[in-house]
Specification:
Blueprint lengths: L4 H18 L5 H6 L5 E8 L3 E2 L3 H11 L4 E4 L6 E2 L4 E8 H32 L5 E3 L9 H10 L13 E3 L1 H7 L2 H11 L6 E5 L2 H10 L3 E5 L3 H11 L4 E5 L17 E3 L2 H4 L6 E8 L1
Parallel strand pairs: 6-11, 7-8, 8-9, 9-10, 10-11
Antiparallel strand pairs: 1-5, 1-12, 2-4, 3-5
Helix pairs in contact: 1-3, 3-4, 4-5, 6-7, 7-8, 8-9
Length: about 280
């Protein structure tokens, strides 16, 4: 398995929680039709074009249910797959194949959907200086998988969680009593290895953030013209990030503005799943 170490460390407990959610005591349907061990095979088939992500997680679901299961893989994470394509053949205890099917597909469909949607937006930015980022707007307990899928799709990760970095949003600024106070307090409190990012909503706030010494300035829900003016005002004194309802449909409007980063919650909260199925289960 070639997934990042962080995924290996965190995956099993989260996969087990998903399996426990789906099987509280027994799989009644499977136990009714398959009371004893029977070796079987099933095919993993792509039902629409897209970018596949999460195959290792998919496989791990079955490994946790059946330590004899084996996989013949015809695709890997990051591959562009086509409708009707055979991606894998899984061989193992039919009871495990039946009981793990939905959980395994839930992970794979969700992650592949995110990778596919991310790829479609990343392609629009490939000739620009702007890097595409995700956000913390992820499904609870799925963040490790969803942020991995963003990277598979060609995007990059913003901070993983609240412990990763300082981001002073409107309510932090309000609590501190202004941008200058918030930045000063953050720089005093946080380790020197942490950059301080400030969310701004207008040009006056941009000026304040620059003067306060912010390392990154997030231009939130600003018009294209406002963002162009903001980039001029910042003039390289801080990194720039554009955020706020960024989707595939409107990202073209900011490609030529020259921001360093654009973050989009839509990558994880609005990506449709990719249609993938397990078919043709039979005894062997």
């Amino acid at each position: 398995m070639n997934e990042p170490v962080t995924l290996k460390i965190n995956a099993d407990k989260l996969i087990m929680q998903a399996l426990e959610e789906d099987i509280t005591s027994e799989d009644i349907s499977t136990n009714a039709v398959m009371p004893q061990y029977q070796k079987g095979q099933v095919e993993l088939i792509c039902k629409q074009d897209g970018i596949v992500a999460g195959l290792q997680v998919f496989c791990r679901v079955f490994e946790l249910l059946d330590d004899t299961v084996s996989f013949e893989m015809f695709a890997k994470d990051g591959d562009a797959v086509k409708k009707g394509e055979l991606m894998a053949v899984i061989t193992g205890d039919i009871r495990a194949l039946l009981s793990g099917e939905r959980t395994a597909l839930n992970f794979l469909q969700r992650m592949s959907g995110i990778a596919t949607y991310t790829h479609s937006i990343a392609e629009l930015l490939k000739d620009s200086k702007t890097t595409l980022l995700d956000t913390r707007k992820t499904t609870p307990n799925m963040r490790i998988f969803e942020k991995y899928a963003v990277k598979v799709g060609g995007g990059s990760n913003h901070r993983y969680n609240l412990s990763d970095g300082v981001m002073l949003k409107d309510n932090h600024i309000g609590a501190a009593g202004g941008i200058a106070k918030a930045v000063a307090m953050a720089k005093s409190y946080a380790s020197f290895v942490h950059k301080v990012e400030v969310e701004v909503e207008n040009l006056d706030m941009v000026k304040e953030a620059v003067e306060a010494g912010a390392d990154i300035i997030m231009l939130d829900n600003m018009t294209a013209e406002e963002m162009r003016e903001a980039v001029k005002l910042i003039d390289g004194r801080a990194l720039t990030e554009c955020s706020g309802n960024v989707t595939k449909e409107n990202i073209q409007n900011i490609v030529d503005i020259g921001v360093d980063y654009v973050s989009s919650g839509a990558l994880t909260h609005s990506a449709p799943i990719m249609d993938i199925s397990l078919k043709n289960l039979h005894a062997v």
